[in-house]
Amino acid sequence: MTARAGFGFGSARVRALANGLTVAVLSNRRAPLVSTVVAYRVGTRDEMPAEGGIAHFLEHMMFKGTRRYGPGEVDRLTQALGGSNNAYTSHDLTAYWFTFSSGAWTRALAIERDRMEALLLDPAEIEAERRVILEEIAGYRNDPWDALNEQVNAAFFDGHPYGRSVLGSPETLAGIAREQLAGFHHRRYGPGNAVLVVAGDVGPEALDEAEARFGDLPPREPPPRVEVAAASRDGFRWRRVVRRAGETARLLVVLPAPPADHETAPAVRLLATWLGGTRGSRLVRALVDEEQLFQDLSVDFGDSVEPGYLQISAELVPGVEPERAEARLLECLEAAAAGPEPDELERARSVLEADWIFGHERIHQQAQSLAWALSFYAADLPDRQLEALFDLTTGDVTRVASRCLPPAVEGVIGWSLPDAEASR
Amino acid sequence: MRTEPPTAPERVVFRCQRVLGAPVVSVRVFLRGGMRREPTPGLALVTGRSLTEGSRERDWRRVADEAEARGVAISGFASLDGHGLAVDALAREWRKAVEWAAELSLEPAFPADRAAWVARQAAGELESLLDTPEARAGFAFLDHLYRPHPRSRPLQGELRGSPDEIADSCGRFHRASMARGVVVVVAGEVDPDEVEAEVHRRFRAAPERTGAPDEEVEPRGRPERRRELVCGGEGQAQVLLGHRTLELGHRDHPLLELLGVILGAGAGLDGRLPQRIRERDGLAYGVQVGTVVGASTDPGHLGVWVATADETVERVIDGAVEELRRVVEHGVLETELAAARAWLLGREPFGRETARQWAPRLVLAELLGLPLDRPEWRTRGWREATREAVDDAARRWIRPDELKITVGRPAAS
User: Fold this and answer.
1) pLDDT one-digit tens code per residue, B18-38
2) How many Å is the maximal CA-CA distance in chain B?
3) Among residues A214, A249, A271, which one ends one of the domains?
4) How far is CA B242 from each of CA B2, B258, B270, rounded to the nearest angstrom?
5) Are residues A32 and A78 located together in one domain of the fold?
6) Average pLDDT per 10 consecutive residues for chain A, totaling 424 residues
7) For the segment B61-80, what is each residue's pLDDT rounded down to a tens digit?
8) Position B216 confidence tier, pLDDT thresholds 50, 70, 90
9) What is the pTM of this model?
């Protein structure tokens, strides 16, 4: 296969069941494995502020007992069948996945169906899981990057649900009752709000299998998604967040960027790679390898449904003054607004293409990407965006650079500074 | 898929794995240096990473630019047993990947300014890691179990000296490692004969093997049973407990793998320890368990890691020790063994999906002289294990009275 062909997401067979469930099958017979993903169009953005963390709490509870599968049984069965499973909650989406050998994958459908229609939410299990999540929150707060990221996000998305912590806080978590969890599940976990992807060593008959297992579930029309106003950028000037912990200085700069399906998204993704996706990228070469101000640096473009961010994260070389490093970073960003040289662009394009291939080698990675694309857009979005990459010119990237980088925009500058430096 | 036996000249041991349909080709050059043989902590990593800092032909900028122009990812690495290069490329670029792997490993320049920068980065990386309570406690636990063996210390080390001294040390260490033989591995959708010819051509300048046998350092560990230290963070403590067990090639290894799954190394939160500590008692978010963690030619270890509230440390320790004692005294259930076996057998293909998974496996197979690349060899021990054999292994290798316990307390404890 050629790299430009992508992984053929557009060739996935998609069927909309009468109850609203979207089912997709992506055949890839390279390994005797099948991944399934059930993604619900619900996430932190759908929570009321006082119930912060409920989407994530519910994700945990999906492993704690249904009518047919008692607490822990999902994992026991996964183990007995030689598979793997997990789940995640983001601001936009909550997804559950299994990977099994080709002969066992339909068990995943049985579990997912039961979780969709018959979640138990036993009070004792809820209390045990609440304590578990408190420990998860403590772990995040003790991780220097997670803690900084949470504070910077809150400042950047001020008042917008993207600024809330996915885990919630100990205070909001304490207030979430069983009835709220049950209501959240009932409203948001119906077939009409879900996408089921089956990928790997299966053929189109998997569509029929999925329909046979889910088709008789009654439709549950999802409530309209909570409308969120775009985070206001009017008059937004640089905001600064400083926390004091640890010994290494860490810098996180967040700038506004378009949503994942925006027509400029491929150019912004290429911009991010050109700026900080590789060793030869503009910022890494200048600030890490040449001037040796940062020991590492990366630039990421977040895939979000609503307008999101371009994020620059870097760790300072011990002994370098944070003010000096920050000033040089901002200078470099302003200079980059003039756009890349043609050879820089070609390198970034090659790297982005390779990264995309590297990042989709495994079946479950392909299933995850397809589930995300189908949840909000169309199956072929990832392939179309990859294809668009090859048509982008320096002019295209320069245009988004001039709009996405200072001085045209400002964002949040977050520092995690060592205790000693912070007290100077 | 098939594995080619080594047929290139002995100075270069070559292994190739054809991975049908793989879009990526992975090349690894592995030299028998590593932490095990480094005279100064951190030298192996700095040497490995400095391989991308330039060759006789090209400086570091050209190395990076030319690789990126073709979408090739090149990185230098080091481990306990060796250092070398990892080159991952789209399948169409396999020849270039082999060519660059040979150039950078056979003719590295080790420019002084670049070697010094790599050393500085490694020191900064270690400092950054130590900002995380989990990493700080993890390093202390390895020291508790393995000191003075090199596994007891971080890979990064803190290499000091002038730029010239660092570069000279890297050059000497690299040449000495090269003299112990070069392992070249290629995995991907390639023709093994064609690749072998290319590897033979590109690596013909590899030196003869002359390396002398190494003096091994025995792992002993710290004498104290329990060790407490401050690891930072707020409210949450890190609990690690375990002891050394056995090597990867040991005949009991598959039995301990099965036992590990029964205790909690398997799917999700299944297993006795996660079920007890997290699911029943709600004391932690993460509970990690292994019985042969890091096993290679040296013994791996039994390891249990739990992050829990500072005030529940003793409950976690008591629960973990009780569960370990229970498995030693009462053995495992047939149903548990069947599930553990099924999980290991079912998971086995997961590790052979991509070329990038195959490549390090081939290196390890060569290094240990074990057929790790043959699925049937890996799975036989799991298939043949009986409950009695697993119970015997538990009694032999799980020793609750000899557990070493490391507790990392939060700063405000």
Assistant:
1) 998 899 999 999 999 999 999
2) 64
3) A214
4) 38, 17, 20
5) yes
6) 57 95 94 95 94 97 96 92 94 97 94 97 95 93 94 92 95 97 96 97 96 95 76 74 92 95 96 95 97 97 91 96 97 96 96 92 94 95 91 97 92 90 42
7) 999 999 999 999 999 999 99
8) confident
9) 0.93
CB contact under 8 A, A75 and B233: no
A224 domain-assigned: no
Q: Do A32 and B127 make contact, defined as CB atoms within 8 angstroms?
A: no
**Do A82 and B68 make contact, defined as CB atoms within 8 angstroms?**
no
Report which of A368, A277, A296, A44 is spatially closest to residue A145, judged by C-alpha positions: A296
Instruction: Return the amino acid letter for B100.
Output: W
Question: What angle is formed at CA B357 by the lines to CA B249 and CA A385, rounded to 5 degrees?
Answer: 165
How many domains does chain A fold into?
A: 2
Measured between alpha carbons, how far apart are the two ends of chain B, in Å? 55
What one-letter code names the amino acid at B41?
P
Complex ipTM: 0.91
pLDDT of residue A6: 58
How many residues comprise chain B?
A: 413
Residues A206 and A244 both lie in one domain: no
Beta-strand ranges (E) seen in A134-275 are 194-200, 239-244, 250-257
The answer to whether B31 and B174 are in contact (CB under 8 A) is: yes
Flag whether residue B61 sits within 8 Å of chain A, measured between CB atoms.
yes
| Residues of the domain holding A175 | 9-214
Within this chain, do residues A205 and A243 fall inside the same structural domain, yes or no? Answer: no
Q: Is the peptide bond before B371 cis (omega within 30 degrees of 0)?
A: no
Lookup: tokens for B312: 């529940």
Disruptive mutation site among A4, A57, A100, A132 for chain B (greatest number of B CBs within 10 Å): A132
Token pair listed for B378: 């890996």
Asked if A94 and A168 count as a contact pair (C-beta separation under 8 A), the reply is no
**Helix axis angle, B60-69 relative to B94-106, nearest 10°?**
170
Interface test with B, best of A60, A62, A79 (most B CBs within 10 A): A79
